Amino acid sequence: MRYFNWIIRIVLFIVLLGFAVKNDQPITLRYFFGYEWQSSLVLVLLIFFSAGTVIGVLAMLANVLQQRREIATLKRDIRVKNKLAGVDESQHAPQ
Questions:
Q1: How far apart are the C-alpha atoms of 76 and 33, rounded to whole Å?
Q2: Residue 88: CA atoms inside 13 Å, Cβ hemisphere, count?
Q3: If residue 11 lies in a helix (H) or strand (E), which one and from where to where?
Q4: Cβ pair 89, 80 in contact under 8 A
Q5: Contact, 38 vs 26, CB < 8 A?
Q6: What is the distance between the alpha carbons of residues 46 and 40, in angstroms, rounded to a whole number?
Q7: Sequential DSSP letters for 48-91
Q8: Which of 41, 5, 7, 44 is nearest to 26 (CA)?
Q9: What is the DSSP letter of 94?
Q10: Is 28 helix (H, G, I), strand (E, B) or coil?
Q11: Please, which residues bridge with residue 41 across strands?
Q12: Which of 40, 57, 61, 91 is the most buried (most CB within 10 A)?
């Protein structure tokens, strides 16, 4: 399985490298008020892909942190209830 994983990585790298080599033409991005930025197409695509990834991770972060907090609270409640019931933690199956 490890060799298959490396083969997939190498093939993906070669495909993306070929994409980058074939799309190195300069482009111009035009903004408001006459601002312009000239760069290669691959660089612009990489920047926008990275920005989208960062925005997606930040959008999910609040939900993940809320779920972790809720899980910690539920685990603490279970420990307290087990302690009050006199059940030892070693009697439970591993989580």
A1: 57
A2: 2
A3: helix 2-22
A4: no
A5: yes
A6: 10
A7: HHHHHHHHHHHHHHHHHHHHHHHHHHHHHHHHHHHHHHT--GGG
A8: 41
A9: P
A10: strand
A11: none
A12: 40
Here the tokens at position 44 are 């612009």
Mapped onto helix, strand or coil, the DSSP state of residue 40 is: strand
Residue with tokens 């490298």: 17
What's the mean per-residue pLDDT of the chain?
A: 88
Q: For 15-33, how does the pLDDT look when each residue is reduced to its tens digit (9 = 90+)?
A: 988 988 888 889 898 888 8
pLDDT band at 2 (very low <50, low <70, confident <90, very high): confident
Spatial distance between the Cα atoms of 24 and 64, rounded to a whole number of angstroms: 38
Contact indicator for 41, 24 with CB cutoff of 8 Å: yes
| Residue 41 one-letter amino acid | L
* 28 in Cβ contact with 38 (< 8 Å): yes
